Amino acid sequence: MMKFFDSLPPMDHLRSEKMSFVQLIIPVESAHRSITYLGELGMLQFKDLNDDKSPFQRTFVNQVKRCGEMARKLRFFSDQISKACIMSAGRPAMQPDISLEELEVRLAEHEAELLEMNMNSDKLQQAYNELLEFKLVLLKAGSFLVSSQNHAVPAERELDENIYSKEKDQESLSFLDQETPPEMSNKAGLRFISGIICKSKALIFERMLFRTTRGNMFFNQAPAGEHVMDLASGEMVEKIVFVVFFSGEQAKTKILKICEAFGANYYPVPEDTSKQRQMTREVSSRLSELEATLDAGIRHRNNALGSIASHLWKWTIMVRKEKAVYDTLNMLNFDVTKKCLVGEGWCPVFAKPQIQDALQRATIDSNSQVGIIFHVMDAIESPPTYFGTNRFTHAFQEIIDAYGIARYQEANPAVYSVITFPFLFAVMFGDWGHGICLLLGSFLLIVREKKLCSQKLGSFMEMAFGGRYVLLLMALFSIYCGLIYNEFFSVPFHIFGESAYKCRDTSCSDAHTAGLVKYRDPYPFGVDPRWRGSRSELPFLNSLKMKMSILLGVSQMNLGIILSYFDAKFHGNTLDVRYQFIPQMIFLNSLFGYLSLLILIKWCTGSQADLYHVMIYMFLDPTGDLGENQLFWGQKPLQILLLLLAIVAVPWMLFPKPFILRKLNMERFQGRTYGILVTSEMDLDHEPDSARQHHDDFNFSEVFVHQMIHSIEFVLGAVSNTASYLRLWALSLAHSELSTVFYEKILLLAWGYDNPIIRMAGFAVFAFATAFILLMMETLSAFLHALRLHWVEFMSKFYHGDGYKFRPFSFASLADEED
């Protein structure tokens, strides 16, 4: 068997790409161009040689700051374009190239221009809001003053300049600044202050005024009639106009302070009706002028933003590239002559010629007299893990990486998960009607792939689009399993011929009591449609799906253990082969492999043996008589042998390996042998071409405890993991029964009425339940259970998942990067 495994050809995607640890010695004059070319290639992961320095102590910190400042300006432009609702040009056509220095100057000019336009626009908007509020106060407060003229002292207006708490800018063209306040009356009498305040603050404002003046005031208010922009939030708010009548200088001071605290604006309103009308006309005229000025300013600003928007994408990518180049240069060190930069990093072995070609081009294009030195070095640390993926395999690799990144050159479970993951999902979801719905959804995502790639999607849609090929295989396998289960929205069909069963008489009255009679060969493919609705439907389907779940589970766990053999063989670890792989295979198959064999024999022979009884008494009474539960000759001695092998396999896993490691370690340090000690448990990585091996201090107690935990975990896991695969049966049964309930209790019940409205309502409820419960919730449930079966039951047999991902310096990811 081992020779057969060894003779198998290697699989390209089973192992990560071979990596090399390389060193670059780059002359200063060609450093920037060479790093740029390497970023365009995207096949070299640099090691930070200055990780002991802070970002502000590095060589190219000033260049990084410049790029950061330009990125800030570009974000400012992007925010302004978004607020102005200007459509960005996206990725424009060819434009003339500019240098970084020219771009820096241009961005500074654009920012200064935009800031000035924004400042002028804010001043004009503030003046416009003041005039609009003044107009509203003039219109509303006049009625209050007319009604109070019989009780007020003659012509006394609160137009003193002390009423205004804030200074008015001379360039704001405010009407209030052009007014000359009349003389303040010294006579004691009734005075008033008019103004405007947010409606939400009006009630509290009135209460505060009442309490402060101890009731010696009269407050009148009315809705402003128009929404006014709040300069602080930029939103349109509802306001009310108020007039406060009071008496005395002290009361005036208190009222003005309260107005300032509540953000109320107060304006002078003459008591004379003719002057009110004249002032209203002047304010309206000024408002129309300001409105025209504001519109012209907005048009000019939008034109400037539109010009920036056409170049924004190119400028953003350019700045991001420059910043990435200088960030990478900061990871390099100067040599002793200060004329060259030294860098180290990882690259795939297949990419070394491409990297050398890029470095040679950089030397030529920068007119450097000295070439770039590129050579391979040995490394102490383990290399990064890099799997080459495409659109189809990327989602499956992401599912595995979510559990943990594979060790360098460790077996990749994604190769097998491409088939096993959607298949186990389909075992739980099997219904070819629901599978067709999933297939249509996945086809829609695949057909619109190019369009959706360029759009920003929501979180749920982005997840569905990223797994579109996973959905495709899940749908295809669901159709396949649905045909085996013979379920189309829970309804069976005679697709592959006539049923093998018939009723005992023409009336078929005893079909659910006495049962059916078999009169021809078995149904050619899948479950016979006559099982649906029969007396023994549930016992038959439960038995079928439960046994099928055990067979699938034992097969996948065996695959995981076999992959552990390939891993140990690949890394030259004979201890793991002899003292882990062999006893694990013996233990698992002595118990649950034997159970799978009994299931197959029972299916093939039609025996009525009770497999529960056989497995239980295999432990309780190994030498007892099997009686009617005997399936084949020699079953009892075989059971005793398998039980003894399972018992022997446990100490086989536990004791030999730690003691052999201890012996080899002692011999190595006593000088009797210089052999390399390799074990997966000591986390030693071996790659002769690129990485040196390293040895930690050997601790026998630690190794023994680790091996004991591993052995106990496997023994207990063999039982619990096999039982865990019964979720395939449970979820398949739940999906089938739920689909049957929706079909019989909603659709058929509604179709029993002659009323078309009831039928349409029943169909709508059935469609809603199918779409949201069976196609969404059940899909998610089956997906998560299939995920658990792979992460825990399958991958725990061989997968460590404690590596780190290969993250090369590349410009390709800058387009999707968000600041």
From TrEMBL:
InterPro entries: V-ATPase_116kDa_su, V-type_ATPase_116kDa_su_euka. The chain crosses the membrane at residues 423-447, 468-485, 548-566, 586-603, 638-655, 763-787. Pfam families: V_ATPase_I. GO terms for cellular component: vacuolar proton-transporting V-type ATPase, V0 domain. It comes from the Eukaryota. GO terms for biological process: vacuolar acidification. Keywords: Coiled coil, Hydrogen ion transport, Ion transport, Membrane, Transmembrane, Transmembrane helix, Transport. It is a multi-pass membrane protein. Residues 98-127 form a coiled coil. GO terms for molecular function: ATPase binding; proton-transporting ATPase activity, rotational mechanism. It is found in: Membrane. Belongs to the V-ATPase 116 kDa subunit family. Essential component of the vacuolar proton pump (V-ATPase), a multimeric enzyme that catalyzes the translocation of protons across the membranes. Required for assembly and activity of the V-ATPase. This is V-type proton ATPase subunit a. The lineage of its organism: Eukaryota, Viridiplantae, Streptophyta, Embryophyta, Tracheophyta.
